[in-house]
Amino acid sequence: MKILICHGDLKMDAIKQTVQDCVLGFRSAQDIQQQYDKVGWRMSEPEFRKFRHIAIHLSKYVGKLSEIAEQWEHAVYDDGIGESGVVIASKAEDIASAVGSLIYHSAQLSSLAGLQMSVCFLDRLTANAIRFAPESVFTKLTEMASRDDSAGG
Fold first, then answer.
1. Which pLDDT tens digits describe the chain residue by residue (153 residues)?
2. Which of 14, 45, 133, 138 is the most buried (most CB within 10 A)?
3. 47 and 88, same domain (yes or no)
4. If DSSP codes are grouped into helix, strand and coil, which group holds residue 146?
5. Other Cβ atoms closer than 10 A to 137
6. In the chain, what is the straight-line distance between the N-terminal and C-terminal CA atoms, in Å?
């Protein structure tokens, strides 16, 4: 992991390199998703069927995360363990399954819409930075990324 903060100042070169790494990583994820979908995803035509099925899967995994959160909510408030008593890592396997699925299905949606995942991700971070950290270098993330590639490669 690159260190992005040095004595309170952000290292611009490190940020730029990390953004480029992000773009390459998302491009690779989207490429592998597209290749897999050719052999392992049956609901492809018409496009709306694929979109609908992806949306169903996304809802399932967000629901699984909500179920985990609800269990913790009851443990905190009903059993009195306190919020500091919640150990996120205790559900790491369940969270990993959900995260992997959310990334995969996000890649599918990006590909289906002709988008680059990295642009979607960096645009979201940039928008958040503009709102919550307007003086930070993170407001410039989308400017640091190259947008001239086609979706997925």
1. 443 444 445 577 888 889 999 999 999 999 999 999 999 998 888 999 999 999 999 999 999 999 999 999 999 989 888 899 999 999 999 999 999 999 999 999 999 999 999 999 999 999 999 999 998 888 988 888 864 444 444
2. 138
3. yes
4. coil
5. 16
6. 25
Q: Do 127 and 78 share a structural domain?
A: no
- The total number of structural domains that make up the chain: 2
* Structural domain boundaries enclosing 133: 9-40+116-146
β-bridge partners, 6: 9
Q: Give the Cα separation of 136 and 72 in Å (integer).
A: 34
Contacts of the segment 34-41: beta carbons below 8 A, 24+ positions apart: 34/107, 34/111, 34/152, 34/153, 37/108, 37/111, 41/108
